[in-house]
Amino acid sequence: MATSTMRMTRPATGQGRPWLASVVTFLIVAFVIFAAALISAPTKGIKIFPLGPYFAEAISSGRWFLLAGGLLAIAVGVLAAFMIYNIWGDQGRRQETLAAYLFLSPYLLITIVFTVGVLLFALYIAFFEYDIFTAPKFVGAANFVKAFKTKDFLQSLVNVGWYAVIVTVIQTSLALLLAVLLSSKMRARNFFRTIFYTPSVTSSVVISMIFWWLYLKTGYLNFGFEKLLGIFGIEWTRIEWLNNPRGLFQLIAMAFGGNIPSDLWFLRGPSVTWMAIMFQNIFTTIPTFMLMFLAGLQDVPGSLYEAASIDGATSRQQFWKITIPMVRPTILLVVVLGTIGTLQIFDQVKILTSGGPLGTTLTPVYLVYREAIGSQGQIQMGYASAMAFILAIIIFVFTFLQRRFIESGTEQY
Predict the structure, then answer these.
(1) Which long-range contacts (C-beta less than 8 Å, at least 24 apart) are formed by 46-51?
(2) In this predicted model, what pLDDT tens digit does every residue of 42-65 receive, in sequence order?
(3) pTM (2 decimals)?
(4) Could you say which DSSP state residue 379 is in?
(5) Which of 30, 84, 141, 223 could make an SS bond with 77 (beta carbons 3.0 to 4.6 A apart)?
(6) CA–CA separation, 46 vs 208, rounded Å?
(7) How is residue 50 annotated by DSSP?
(8) Cα–Cα distance between 25 and 100 in angstroms, integer?
(9) Pick from 330, 398, 301: which is nearest to 176 by CA?
(10) Are 330 and 183 in contact (CB under 8 A)?
(11) Residue 137 forms beta bridges with which residues?
């Protein structure tokens, strides 16, 4: 009986040391977060190793950043220690928690160092004048004010606004129509699905170079129009697709004998060059969204179409009354992903136009890249970070509004 009593009152292994486990947890978590802050600290371009000079430089140039990182490390470390202290007495929960975080640790380390740390660094230097070679100089909200006073940034916002509206609408509509077509019974359906999806698996750099070749003044696009229209006796004037700053509305006005002056550039509409890049993007992104719609169409019960056919509904009525409502969650996903992708366009602009001609293909991400590396002047990391956060806020607002207006009502399906 005594032996049984001793066994019942003896604590399980590890239950008597919750404070020690909490201290170790606090030290590990605080060390990792502070190390991430130390690695991300703004310095004067000095190398991390040897660690001594780098640490001294980080304290000198980024003392406030390290102070904030240290406070964050202490706060998160205390929360982690408190969690471990509470679960340590339960052997099952303790083993589950330790195993889970052990498996998650590689991902968490990479995320903390290369995502969270870099994000906090960017937010910090957005309020500083910083060129990576001199100590950061606090300027408050001057970088944000400068962005909204600079024509290049305002023009880039107008450009991606046109880009997001036109590309998102067209690629979503065509992707849905292709998905409906390829989900119907037809011969060689799998073959056509594979062929249509091919552009999406090709590198954007490769696709951009192919379209650059097509868009040359002596390229196949002009050659094709020249031969096609020549059949009807119409002479085709070769167009410099990637060097034509005239806007869509400007071309319409010119067709009627008018024009839109350069000081009203925001009323000229997307340029010929910008529309050429839009076409390329639509061509390469439709297949991916088509695949998403194909997956969404698999969840639409066939009995709905059968019942509609019995009631005399036409194919068009079935599309608008059944297909569209049933795939609204997928439409929301495609529209959100498409909008985010169009607002963040960079690689096509960098490869094909570098923001020209006359800034008609400038985008916020390209400006962030240009100012951050100083490709056209002094390095302005703080200004680039400010523009990046402005773009992030715009994307968040667009995503919120899209979820608000598109997602409402989907729960009934």
Answers:
(1) none
(2) 888 788 888 888 888 888 888 899
(3) 0.86
(4) -
(5) 30
(6) 36
(7) S
(8) 14
(9) 330
(10) no
(11) 129
